[in-house]
Specification:
single chain, 172 residues, mainly alpha, 59% helix, TatB, protein transmembrane transporter activity, protein transport
Length: 172
């Protein structure tokens, strides 16, 4: 930027004092300072926006690299799983080739626990019944107590008995 030394600033101040005058100089100086502050804030905002866009671009590059690495790992895992599955199927078919088709061992699918002892059926699902008589409200209980909202229903006689003075005084 422009290099302003003390001598240049003193010269500018002396010329401004002569041209503007001593009465209007403080107001003009405040206005100039105000505009310089606005300009500095604008420049800092622009710098911050540029820095944010640069960081966003860097994050997008890192994201793309991470996604491509994740895809490569996923593809390699699928290849390995497929290869192991094929090898297992091949060795299983070779191992069971000499066995008879009906075996007396544990059932493969769907047997009961009496036949093989290893299969237990999942428990049956019981639908949860909601009590529709209870009103479920989004207002917390502490707020109702603080606001004086009645949460329990009382009969008129019970309410009168509750608020009756205890010193034995009865109004006539």
């Amino acid at each position: 930027m422009i290099d302003f030394g003390f001598d240049k600033l003193a010269l500018i101040g002396a010329v401004a004092l002569i041209v503007i005058g001593p009465e209007k100089l403080p107001r003009v100086a405040r206005t100039v300072g105000h505009f310089i502050g606005k300009a500095q804030r604008y420049v800092s905002d622009v710098k911050a926006e540029v820095n944010r866009s640069i960081e966003l671009e860097e994050l997008n590059k890192v994201k793309q690299q991470f996604e491509s690495t994740a895809r490569d790992v996923e593809h390699s895992m699928h290849r390995e799983v497929n290869q192991l599955s094929n090898d297992f199927d091949k060795s299983w078919s070779e191992a069971t080739a000499g066995l008879p088709s009906s075996s007396s061992s544990a059932p493969e699918t769907g047997g009961s626990s009496d036949e093989g002892g290893w299969y237990t059926p999942p428990p049956s699902y019981a639908k949860v019944r909601k009590n529709w008589r209870i009103k479920r409200s989004a207002v917390p209980r502490w707020y109702k107590q603080q606001a004086g909202v009645r949460t329990h229903v009382q009969s008129g006689a019970a309410r009168v008995a509750r608020h009756r003075p205890r010193n034995g005084f009865t109004p006539r």
